Amino acid sequence: MTEFDIVDADAVRSGRATDAYFDRTAAALEHAGRNPRVVAEVTADQFPSGEFELFAGLKDAVALFAGRDVDVHAIPEGRLFDGGPAMRIEGPYLSFARLETSLLGFLSHASGIGTAALDCRAAAPDSALFSFGARHVHPSMAAAVERSALVAGFDGFSHVAAGDLIGREASGTMPHALSICFGAGDQEAAWRAFDAAVDETVPRIALCDTYSDEVDEALRAADALGDRLDGVRLDTTGSRRGDFRHIIREVIWELDARGHDDVDVYVSGGLGPTDLRELRDLVAGFGVGGYVSNADPVDFALDIVEVDGELAAKRGKLSGTKQAYRTADGGHAVALADRQGPTDGEPLLKPVIRDGEVVAGDAFDLDAATERALADAERVGYGSEN
To answer: How far is residue 282 from each of residues 53, 267, 292, measured CA to CA in Å?
Structure first.
């Protein structure tokens, strides 16, 4: 047992992190001496609907299946999908039966978070975006949140331990707690303490809405830190915000009037794509929290579509091994894998594991995934209403 309510990696890898009925299914098949070779597909929608989503979580899925008696094809991480399979697993059913629960969890959560993050990136394509939502999820989820946001094109994230896992340094400057610890009326002491203590590589961005008017604190921060001030962040509580756009414009005006036109403005606090579209012309960047971290998981399911080479499927699902395609006009198409796909279609599912060996590490490389996400978003017109 662990100190916290966290299912550990050994439980996931061993198949213990499963739904009980998979244990019982395995027991029944083993008792009957039956272990057919199957093709199983992970899908969210059977047919394209025009609602694209970003595929993420592949890195963990590959780690789950590596070394097992299976072949795996998948859409590379970061690409967009709309109907049909996002992943295909082929092998003896008992080699992966108990892994379905963890597999779907890896893919569903990461893809939902990545899609929400892509909503934000599409809404503010030229702004700096930072994921601030780790506090809204269980700590065991933090790295998945931050990595999925990066896949969608975010510039940074706040969670330190997640950064250790991802191999990226966390971003962030100061909370309201810093000013509060110095007391009302002494915000300058807090800003100066930050400047004196924090590594020079960290931008000097002062939080300017703790005790008084945003304009007042922004001007005081500029006086306190002078040329060392890189920017101010406004995180005004929604109940006191009023016309946030007007507040930001006023801050910019008053800073500029006093010769501080090089001080950037960043905003955070309950923001989503609508806010980003409304404010992107004024500010340098956004901290986005709950909209990304609290995103609904993509409703993936895993279904057997062939058994020992014969077509199979439950009612309401499509039998047969399939391939998904991106067409030249940015559309998405699905066809049986042994049939001719669209003449201009690019097959999306690629081999990632063959006989248990990982054969395509670039399919879940983080930098490559980000490039794919941004290119695919442009290709399919994702968020074009923005």
So the answer is: 29, 10, 22
Strand ranges across the sheet with 346-347: 332-336, 322-326, 346-347
Query: Alpha carbon of 347 to those of 40, 111, 115, 324, 342: distances in Å?
Result: 18, 20, 21, 6, 9
| Dist. CA 258–CA 256, nearest whole Å | 5
Q: Which pLDDT score, from 0 to 100, does residue 175 have?
A: 96
Torsion of CA 358, 100, 305, 318, to 10 degrees: -120
The label of the residue with tokens 């920017």 reads 231
How many of the other CB atoms lie within 10 Å of CB of 248? 18
Q: Which amino acid, 182?
A: F
Strands 80-81 and 231-234 turn out to be unpaired
What is the CB neighbour count within 10 angstroms for residue 381? 12
DSSP-derived letter for residue 297 is P
Tell me the domains of the chain and their CATH numbers: 9-113+296-380 (3.20.140.10), 126-293 (3.20.20.70)
Distances (CA, A) of 131 to 104, 227, 239, 289: 23, 27, 22, 6
Residues of the chain with pLDDT under 50: none
